[in-house]
């Protein structure tokens, strides 16, 4: 690093002269501070080595002699250099009240008590000399005991909002309450001084809010991974935490599957909401589906997704895999209808399946394709197709229950069915027409449509004259226009008026 850079680094790391003195005394007694990994290294020097390593330099940090993890180590009860969690494990005893293995907080009559049992003792709470409430004693002053809410340094005016409340942190330029601290660390907004969108997390010397560079302070919200000041999840920003979560998800898989699903991993890394992606691999059912694909428990295909028990998760994953190009595109509407049709046509008697199968697989599908080509695909296209199949099954079941079929059933049985189920008229007409055209129904004909009215028009020669008399611009009843009507012969009979008798019936010769 160089002597000048090292000196500047140590002054920034340990601004207090006493702390720098501890570091200097230890440095004089060791020959290789960066690579020795001395287990007797003081805690302040261990923190210094970690900061140097975070800046990109190769140093060796001493580890715990019990668990082997890189933590701040000290002298344990057995004279070994161990971390605090290991020290707590070695010092834990069985509580005489609750029976749990915990740290001993108090010994009453030679019996150990944990902190939770100590807090439940009758004499653990005393009356606070400031608020008068019976609470646990935080500190004792000349005026009497103080509770944690009234202890000095715990309740002060917040430098951000001015409200007197419990102090959460002090590194933002003064005492900061919990609501203000949550807003500071979770909100990006323009700095009042430089207008840069960042975390406005400090109070300047003049008492105004500002970002840490404008306030002249080091930011406490720097990501340890990318070095950018941003909203953090732990010690890392949310984009870095989301990247680590996605990489950990795709790490559990075979190399072949990882190569196939690489486009999906790239899409997840570029997700616009990294905050939601941090918890997504652990909580989402789609992540479990991806993990099954990576480990080989599930094949990457449309067919295996069709068989997944949770339809919504499978459809979301199908859409994602198709969008990134892992799976080929497929017409999902037709695929769902065909799979529904396979389930629908199973489990029926042979005489019904012999008729229902060809009708559903040929006539209904052909009619549905024709309607899509004519009117386009709508929400009710396949609903109507399913309804046609169900009503055809209902009519065949009705015939089967009456010991009949399409050959032996008559028009009377058809009318009886429609009288009971009048809403099935359109679908039954289509089915009977198909059955009659294919020779499967010999004694039944399609019922008339409700939308066809009987004809009441007169023959064309009746309307030969009089078309241009009153409304020359309207089309004539004969369909040839006003010019054709005016050119009609003059001896043609006039159209009958409302009071005139009806025209004579045509003779058989003219008919």
Number of helical regions: 20
What is the general shape?
elongated
Tell me the helix content. 40-55%
Give the overall pLDDT as a whole number.
Answer: 80
Number of strands: 19
For the record, give the distance between the C-alpha atoms at the N and C termini, rounded to a whole number. 116 Å
Which strand order spans the largest sheet, edge to edge or round the barrel?
11-12-13
Pairing-aware structural class of the strands and helices?
Answer: mainly alpha
Give a short account of the largest sheet.
3 strands, antiparallel
Low-confidence stretches: 453-460, 463-511
Describe this structure in words.
- The protein has 511 residues and is mainly alpha-helical.
- 43% of the residues lie in helices and 10% in strands.
- The chain has helices spanning 3-13, 17-29, 43-54, 84-91, 115-119, 178-186, 212-215, 238-251, 255-260, 262-269, 274-283, 285-295, 302-306, 311-323, 332-344, 350-375, 381-401, 411-420, 425-437, 481-486, and strands at residues 73-75, 81-83, 93-94, 101-102, 106-108, 111-113, 125-127, 134-136, 139-141, 144-146, 155-157, 164-169, 176-177, 189-190, 197-198, 202-203, 209-210, 232-233, 236-237.
- Helix 8 (238-251) packs parallel to helix 11, helix 11 crosses helix 12 (285-295) and helix 12 packs across helix 14 (311-323).
- The radius of gyration is 44 Å and the shape is elongated.
- The model is unreliable at 453-460 and 463-511 (pLDDT under 50).
């Amino acid at each position: 690093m160089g002597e000048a850079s090292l000196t500047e680094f140590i002054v920034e790391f340990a601004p207090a002269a006493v702390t720098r003195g501890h570091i200097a005394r230890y440095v004089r007694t060791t020959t290789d501070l960066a690579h020795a990994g001395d287990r007797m290294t003081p805690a302040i020097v261990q923190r210094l080595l970690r900061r140097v390593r975070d800046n990109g330099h190769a140093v060796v940090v001493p580890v715990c002699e019990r668990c082997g993890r890189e933590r701040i180590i000290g002298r344990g009860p057995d004279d070994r250099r161990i971390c605090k969690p290991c020290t707590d494990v070695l010092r834990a005893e069985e509580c005489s009240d609750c029976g749990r293995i915990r740290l001993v907080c108090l010994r009453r009559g030679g019996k150990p008590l944990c902190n939770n049992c100590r807090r439940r003792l009758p004499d653990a709470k005393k009356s606070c000399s400031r608020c008068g409430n019976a609470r646990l004693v935080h500190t004792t002053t000349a005026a009497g005991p103080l509770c944690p809410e009234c202890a000095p340094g715990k309740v002060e005016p917040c430098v951000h909002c001015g409200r007197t409340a419990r102090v959460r942190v002090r590194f933002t330029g003064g005492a900061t309450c919990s609501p203000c601290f949550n807003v500071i660390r979770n909100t990006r907004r323009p700095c009042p001084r430089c207008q840069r969108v960042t975390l406005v997390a400090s109070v300047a010397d003049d008492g105004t809010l500002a970002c840490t560079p404008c306030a002249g302070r080091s930011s406490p919200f720097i990501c340890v991974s990318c070095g950018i000041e941003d909203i953090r999840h732990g010690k890392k920003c949310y984009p870095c935490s989301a990247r680590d979560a996605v990489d950990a998800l795709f790490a559990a898989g075979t190399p072949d599957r990882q190569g196939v699903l690489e486009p999906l991993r790239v899409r997840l890394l570029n997700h616009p909401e990294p905050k939601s992606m941090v918890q997504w691999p652990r909580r989402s059912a789609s992540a479990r589906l991806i993990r099954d694909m990576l480990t080989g428990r599930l094949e990457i295909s449309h067919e295996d997704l069709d068989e997944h028990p949770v339809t919504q998760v499978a459809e979301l994953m199908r859409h994602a895999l198709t969008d990134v190009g892992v799976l080929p595109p497929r017409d999902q509407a037709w695929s769902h209808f065909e799979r529904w049709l396979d389930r629908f046509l199973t489990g029926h008697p042979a005489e019904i399946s012999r008729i229902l199968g060809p009708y559903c697989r040929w006539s209904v599908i052909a009619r549905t394709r024709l309607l899509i080509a004519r009117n386009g695909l709508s929400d009710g296209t396949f609903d109507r197709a399913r309804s046609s199949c169900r009503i055809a099954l209902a009519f065949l079941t009705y015939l089967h229950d009456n010991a009949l079929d399409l050959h032996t059933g008559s028009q009377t049985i058809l009318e009886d069915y429609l009288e009971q189920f009048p809403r099935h008229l359109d679908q039954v007409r289509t089915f009977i027409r198909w059955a009659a055209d294919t020779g499967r129904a010999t004694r039944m004909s399609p019922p008339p449509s409700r939308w066809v009215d009987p004809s009441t028009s007169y023959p064309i020669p009746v309307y030969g004259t009089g078309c241009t008399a009153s409304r020359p611009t309207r089309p004539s009843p004969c369909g040839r226009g006003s010019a054709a009507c005016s050119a009609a012969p003059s001896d043609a009979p006039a159209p009958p008026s409302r009071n005139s008798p009806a025209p004579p019936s045509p003779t058989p010769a003219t008919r």
